[in-house]
Amino acid sequence: MNFPPGDVLASDMLFYRLRALVSDLQALLDPLRLKAEVTHHPQPLLQYISIPLPAGGQVMLYFDRIGAWIVVRPLGAHEPGELTAWPLETPDGTLIDVAAEAARASIEQRPLLSPYRWGRAEHSFITKLADALVALGVPAGDIHVPRALTLEGDRLVRDGGHSERLVLQEEMGEAQVEVALRPGLGWTADLEVHDDPGSRGRMDVRFAVHHVREPRPDMPLSELPVDDLAGLLREWTAADPETPNKWGRLWRYAPTPRRSGPNCGDPDDHCALASWFRWCGFTDVQPQKVGRSVQLSGKHLLVHLHSAASTAGLSVVQRVQGQASVTASRAAVLSQVGFTRQADRWADDAGVALFWLDRGSVPRPANEAAAHLMPEPGEILPLECTDSACKHLGCVLDQGECPTDIGSKWSDPHSYLWRQVEAPSE
To answer: Are residue 134 and residue 239 in the same domain, yes or no?
Structure first.
C-alpha cells in the first residue's frame, strides 16, 4: 500500500487547519463586510488566509516553516507592510483576533489596538504602562516592548529576557531607560546614556516618588501605580538636557564602578565588590569582618564571599539564607568557581541571588534572582590613571611599572580614556 509523501500530508493538514480558522474568523469579519478565504501562492508553495480590503491590498495569516505564525497587513501605498510573528503555541482564538484587528486597523488607517500593537496576546502591567505613556504624549516609536518573536530578514529571533519590561527612549535620543516589573523587587528603572561608557545604572525610583532615600532598590507595585510611574517617566523623557536637572527626578543610586586594579579578579578586593552592590541600589553595603572571613552587608542585603577553591555547595547557600532571614535581608552568594547543581536549584527556589566573579572584580549574575537584582553594566571603564604625566603626554611608564595596569590605553590618542583628559594648555 502506497502512502503520500510526508510534505503532502503536512500540506493537507495545514489546509484543513486554515479552513477551520477561516470558519471562526468570518464571524468577526461579517460586521466589516469582509470575507476571509484560504488561498495559496504558487511560487513559494505558500498557503495562507487572505482578507481582501476595500481600498486594495490584503491582510494575510500564514504558517512560516521557520517556526511561527505570521500576520501581515498593508500600511500605505508606498510603505512596507506591518508584519508580526506569533509563537506556534498561540491559541487559535488569539490568531483570529489578531487577524480581525489587523483588518479593522487597516480599514480605519490606525495602529493596532493594545495589546496587539506591542506584540502581546494579553494585557499586562507592561502593556498598560506603554499605553499610559502613549496617552501622555510619548511617541509609540520611542517605546520598545520586547516581543516573544521578531522576524529579522529570514531569521526568527526569540527574546530570552524578562517579559515584564520595556525600553523607553529619551525625547532627544541621548539616553534610554529600561523599566521592568521584577519579582521580589517591583518596579526598577535602569539608565543608559548612548555613546557614554560607564553610564549605565539603576535609578532611585523610591526617592523620585517619596523624596526619601533608603538603601534598597525595591519599589512595589502597591506603592507606585502604573499611571504614576508613567507620569514620572514622561517627565524624564521631556527633561531639558541643557539644565542641571537633565533627568528630571530620576537619578542613579551611584556612579558605575570602574574595573579594579592590581587585584584584578581577586575576591579580596572587598571595597570594589561592595561598590557594585551600592551601584544597584543597596547603598549602605560595606565589607564587614566576620571571624576569619569578610562578608558584604547592609540593612537590606547580605553577600557571602565564597573564597574556597571548590564550588559553593548547598550548605553554603542555605547558611547564608538563614543568616539573612534573621534581619529580613536579601541573601546573595558570590563565588569565583561557581556553584554545585544542588545549590543552583535550591537558590532558585529560595530566591537567593548567585553571582560569579569575572576579571576586573565585576559580579555577574549566575541565576535569575541575581539578574533581577543587578542590571547589566555594559562597557566598563578601566581603573582611572592617577599619574599626571601619563594624563597629559600619554603613557610614559613601562607596562610592567604602571601601578594601575592601564598601560597602552593611555597612549592611544583615539581612546575614550584620552578624550576624557583635559588637553595640556599651551
So the answer is: yes
Calpha distance 355→315 (Å, rounded): 16
**Domain-located, residue 36:** yes
Shared-domain flag, residues 310 and 397: no
233 and 169 Cβ atoms separated by less than 8 Å: no
Give 48-74 pLDDT, tens digit per residue: 999 999 988 899 999 988 889 999 999
Task: Provide the pairing of β-strand 143-144 with 68-73.
Answer: unpaired
> 278-290 pLDDT, tens per residue?
999 999 999 998 8
- Does residue 126 have a pLDDT over 60? yes
The predicted pLDDT at position 291 comes to: 81
Structural domain range at position 399: 388-419
Residue 382: cis peptide before it, omega within 30 degrees of 0: no
Task: Give the separation between CA 398 and CA 247, rounded to whole angstroms.
Answer: 42
What are 59's three cell numbers?
491582510
User: What is the bridge-based pairing of β-strands 353-358 and 330-335?
Assistant: parallel
Q: Does residue 58 fall inside a structural domain?
A: yes
Tell me how far apart the alpha carbons of residues 159 and 154 are, in angstroms, rounded to a whole number: 16
Question: Is residue 325 a part of any domain in this protein?
Answer: yes
3 state SS of 406: coil
301-306 and 330-335 strand pairing = parallel
Q: How high is the pLDDT of residue 80? A: 73
3-state secondary structure of 322: helix
How far is residue 270's CA from residue 279's CA, in Å, rounded to a whole number? 14
For 170-229, the DSSP string reads -TTSSEEEEEEEETTTEEEEEEEETT-TT--EEB-HHHHHHS---S---B-TTTS-HHHH
State the CB neighbour count (10 A cutoff) for residue 70. 18
Instruction: Calculate Rg over the CA atoms of the chain.
Output: 27
What amino acid is encoded at 146 in this protein? P
Phi, psi (degrees; rounded to nearest 5) at 56: 105, 160
134 and 107 within one domain:
no
Which grid cell is 181? 516589573
Number of domains in the chain: 4
pLDDT at residue 422, rounded to an integer: 34
CB of 243 within 8 A of CB of 289? no
The HSE-up count of residue 375 (CA atoms within 13 Å, CB side) is 33
Terminal Cα-to-Cα distance of the chain (whole angstroms): 94
pLDDT at 196: 82
Look at 103 and 395; give whichever has higher pLDDT.
103
Half-sphere exposure of 423 (CA within 13 A, CB side): 4
3-state DSSP call for residue 20? helix
